[in-house]
Amino acid sequence: MPQVIRSKYDLKAVIKNIKSKRASIGLVPTMGALHQGHLQLVETANQHYDVTIATIFVNPTQFNNKADLKKYPKTEEADIEKLSATGCDVIFIPEVKEIYQKEVTIGLNFGYLEEILEGKHRPGHFNGVGLIVMKLFGLVEPTGAFFGQKDLQQFRIVSTLIADFDLPIKLHLVPIIRETSGLAMSSRNRRLNDAELKIATTIYSALHLAKAQLIEGYTQEMVLDNVERVFREENGIELEYFEIVDEETLLSKTKVSEGDRLALCVAAFVAGVRLIDNIIFEYKECKYR
Ligand code: AMP
């Protein structure tokens, strides 16, 4: 059974003990309502480090939409069970007042990353992500930290923190785990019924349609037009953005060339639930067209 810890004080004692044995620590931050995507992060952490520490904390400072925060699913007991079965060693589940004991005065600015994709549509979100990640890094002092490709821009934000603050932490990107329908697993999927889950698969189909059309030589403009049409024609889903970007910088690609590493990034609403997804691939022109 993993050790379940709720206070910073107890966590510090556990970390001190682990460090005294010179054991390495893999950190997996989550907001709970765990699914196989989260567990994949834990399994990967187990493979790389001596001790795996998962955190469950629905971080209020990263929610620009307070209704979304209120509705965020909480399944603590089931989460602990899943983490036990996955071989997690320590689970840190603090209350909000434990983490934010006083009002935070510091603000983080990630430059252009805040102006694009998720940053553009969720003002203040990455400041909140940066704050909680820095707090967890400070508390856990991990050797490595694990984040999912599903939140690709979040991964870039954390890379920026590590680089700009010279943190001695190795960052690991874990691929997206999907349902058999192609829908990216997400805690928010719990808020959808079967019909809505089916509609949500439009997101994955659109990503693949766009990739296929790019490879076939369609211009970005044509691809984006076609994607927008797919969303318009499907009832019950509303596209927020769909972008073709450079995988590394996440900046929009105006022209794609052989060998480019591209990411297609999308956000859409189904039944008022905001879902994001992406695919990454190397652009290779189709030779038979
Ligand atoms: P969350 O609980 O949604 O904040 O997610 C915690 C971590 O799990 C983040 O690093 C996410 O990117 C990652 N994650 C969420 N969904 C998936 C998924 N379907 N596949 C892989 N990683 C995921």
Could you characterize the architecture of this molecule?
The chain has 289 residues and is α/β, with parallel strands linked by helices. It folds into two domains: 3-174, Rossmann fold (3-Layer(aba) Sandwich), CATH 3.40.50; 187-280, Pantoate--beta-alanine Ligase, Chain: A,domain 2, CATH 3.30.1300.10. It has helices at residues 8-20, 36-48, 66-71, 76-85, 96-99, 117-121, 125-140, 152-164, 194-200, 202-215, 220-233; strands at residues 3-5, 25-30, 51-56, 90-92, 144-148, 170-174, 237-246, 261-270, 273-282. The protein has a six-stranded parallel beta sheet with strand order 1-4-3-2-5-6, sandwiched between helices. A three-stranded antiparallel beta sheet has the order 7-8-9. A hairpin with a 2-residue loop joins strand 8 and strand 9 (273-282). Helix 7 packs across helix 8 and helix 10 packs antiparallel against helix 11. It starts with a strand and ends in a 7-residue tail after the last strand. The mean pLDDT is 97. The site of adenosine monophosphate has 17 residues, from helix 2 and strand 5.
Number of individual domains: 2
CATH homologous superfamily placement of the largest domain? HUPs
CATH top level assignment of the largest domain: Alpha Beta
Q: Structural class per helix/strand content? A: alpha/beta
The CATH topology of the largest domain: Rossmann fold
* Ligands and ions found: adenosine monophosphate
Mean pLDDT: 97
The Rg value, from CA coordinates, equals 20 Å
**Overall 3D shape:** globular
Looking at the overall shape, the CATH architecture of the largest domain is: 3-Layer(aba) Sandwich
